[in-house]
Here is the input.
Amino acid sequence: MKNNKPKVIQISSDSIVGKNFLKAIKAQKEFKEKVESGSFSKSKIKKVTCG
Amino acid sequence: VDSCYLFDFYESGVNSFKYSFLTASGSEYFISFDIASYLFHQDCLICNNIYSISFYHEGSNSGYDENIRNTIIKIIFDFINEKNCPVLFICDMTDGLAESRLRLFTRWFNLFSDGFLFDSRLLQFEQFILPVGLFGKESDPNINHYLEQMEFEFLF
Here is the structure.
């Protein structure tokens, strides 16, 4: 575990990696929208207990 | 993790795994793991099995509930153990609390870190900062290299 302040990395939103992270942010937003639309709970496989 | 909520597991496609649980106050949490190798260079062989995690919850929580924390941590650690993969999380920054989320995860991790490692970075874009963190098994020989690989990629 590293307790120090996270290292800052400069990144351009025009770079390939930058664009990919923007896609990931968009995917997170789409995940929320999917939950809100009720399309999440259609394929339950199993219930898991704690422990 | 001493106690947590029952949770449901879903498999919604290749390389996509989802979980949900209901809290005592009636709030429902949704968690999704999706393959995230596309965030790394295609030549990075050790990056082929990295998943990213997304969260969302519906309803409001009435007060502090440590079972929410416990359940989320258990789901993450169980997933890492089962898939033998690291998990990257990209902090939601839509409400201005992204760095607070990173600090929260760091605190949570410190409580349950046995056998696992955690590392983080702040990705400084032109207009915003995107905090990211990575959970992985302590026994993973590459655990200290995943985020370094990310730094390497940003040079190009």
